[in-house]
Design goal:
flavoprotein; 36% helix; 15 helices; 4 domains; 7-stranded antiparallel beta sheet; alpha+beta; 5-stranded antiparallel beta sheet; Uridine Diphospho-n-acetylenolpyruvylglucosamine Reductase, domain 2; D-2-hydroxyglutarate dehydrogenase; single chain; 20% strand; FAD-bd_PCMH; 16 strands; 469 residues; Alpha-Beta Plaits; Uridine Diphospho-n-acetylenolpyruvylglucosamine Reductase, domain 3
Length: 469
């Protein structure tokens, strides 16, 4: 059966189920748009794009894929950075944009049911309208979708206080590779009845099944958020700042970035520098300033860090606009450097090992990439570093990728020596699967393959991602 016949049969199958014309896209622009994520190293080549509007349609698509031995690739906001949502081999892309309803809000339980296509910012706004708060936040919150967030266990800028996406999932409905619908956990706080299957689907990148509904937890909103931006001479200083503030205050965020990163943002976005003194590194601290006593404590700690020589300059937000501008210094980095097609390493270690870890990696990349611009930033409060290598305009994309892959092996050897992770929050996808062994043992990977075969015996769910069968 050729491509046109398969597409016609797919449309007929879905039309019979729904009684109306299904939304199946086959034009070139749609295939490219829905067939890739933010990575640009692989060319998309899907068979078609389907936008289901119901769980039943997702099940029908899965049955069709099993019958005709076609892979399925999930597509959310397509903001991923590991090519987990890239369709390169004639797969059907299943895009969840139309499954975007919020329902079932429960004020007592502080839970709400979301379709997988609900935008992160949409959920944040819904929570705010109820006087509550959805704390998982990142630069792509205006376009990323809840289903994708769960499938990649997204982290972001407030992990130090609120944890990862995993910590806010109260229940899931998933369609497995056998088209079976599983309803997992039902919103329970306590459920000690054997294996927690829900947790298997969180961070699985759609390789076991597709999330078709999620019950999400909400929290009380933070009060009087305030930001401190501090300039530091080195990473030892940044870590000393973290230790000093954590001993006396509850932080909602602790981020870091380099002067190179800040310079790019200031040039691109036109936002003012936080203060006149350029410093090699910057720490951004956020906390709830609910009283004058908290403000006084923050200033005392700021002054102490200055006296110790850890901080060279700094500023504390005095208005909402200033707070937003300070956050943009950090949040605008990814968007700003996109035009250079950055090769991203999303790596982590335990927090106490960060200075030595970063220093060793920086030595390697500085030696091996003398002509490349290196941009450092990350969620230093949870040990997550983002190493971005910018592609020179004159360098061919494939040659650039080959050079980066060669050096990545040395970087990941350092990650392995420190007991760290080759992917802290972006997932494995296609780009990192060759390096999975630096974090996972052969026994672990074999067990993961076995788990996939249970839920997806024909290997149709996001094939080729994380590992090869």
């Amino acid at each position: 059966m050729n491509k046109e016949q398969l597409i016609s049969l797919l449309k007929a199958t879905l039309a019979e189920l729904t009684g109306s014309e299904p939304k199946v896209l086959t034009d070139d622009d749609s295939l490219v748009n829905y067939g890739r994520d933010w990575t640009r190293f692989l060319d998309p080549s899907p068979l078609a794009v389907v936008l289901p509007a119901s769980i039943e349609e997702v099940q029908a698509i899965t049955r069709f894929a099993n019958e005709h031995k076609i892979g399925l690739v999930p597509s959310g906001g397509r903001t991923g950075l590991s090519a987990a949502a890239v369709a390169t081999n004639g797969e059907i892309v299943v895009a969840f944009d139309r499954m975007n309803t919020i329902s079932g809000f429960n004020a007592i339980d502080r839970t709400v049911a979301c379709g997988p296509g609900v935008i992160t910012e949409q959920l944040q706004q819904f929570a705010e309208d109820q006087g509550l708060f959805y704390p998982v936040d990142f630069a792509s919150s205006g376009s990323s979708q809840i289903g994708g967030n769960i499938a990649t266990n997204a982290g972001g800028i407030k992990v130090i206080r609120y944890g990862m996406t995993r910590d806010w999932v109260a229940g899931l409905k998933v369609v497995t590779g056998t088209s079976e619908l599983l309803e997992l956990n039902n919103g329970l706080m306590k459920n000690n009845t054997g294996y927690d299957l829900q947790q298997l689907f969180i961070g699985a990148e759609g390789t076991l099944g597709f999330i078709v509904e999620a019950t999400m937890r909400l929290a009380r909103p933070p009060q009087e958020l305030t930001v401190l931006m501090l300039g530091a001479e080195d990473m030892d200083g940044v870590m000393s700042i973290l230790k000093t503030f954590q001993e006396k205050m509850d932080l909602t965020a602790f981020e870091f970035f380099s002067e190179q990163a800040l310079s790019k943002v200031v040039e691109h976005s036109g936002i003012p520098r936080p203060f006149e003194t350029p410093t090699p590194f910057y720490a951004l601290l956020e906390f709830e300033c609910t009283s004058e006593a908290v403000s006084d404590t923050a200033m005392e700690l700021f002054e102490h860090c200055m006296e110790q020589g850890w901080v060279l300059d700094g500023v504390m937000s005095q208005s909402l606009q200033q707070l937003q501008n300070l956050w943009r210094c950090r949040e605008d980095i990814s968007e700003t450097i996109t035009r250079w097609t950055p090769y991203k390493n999303d790596i982590s270690v335990v927090v106490s090992k960060v200075p030595g870890f970063l220093a060793e990696i920086d030595d390697v990349v500085s030696r091996e990439y003398p002509d490349f611009e290196i941009i450092w930033f990350g969620h230093i409060g949870d040990g997550n570093l983002h190493l971005n290598i910018l592609k020179p305009d004159a360098l061919d994309r494939e040659e650039f990728l080959q050079q980066c892959n060669r050096v990545s092996k040395w970087i990941f050897e350092i990650v392995q020596n420190y007991g760290g992770s080759v992917s802290a929050e972006h997932g494995v996808g296609l780009l990192k699967k060759d390096y999975l062994t630096y974090t996972r043992s052969a026994a672990e990977i074999e067990m993961m393959r076995g788990i996939k075969k249970v839920f997806d015996p024909n290997g149709i769910m996001n094939p080729g991602k994380i590992f090869d069968l």
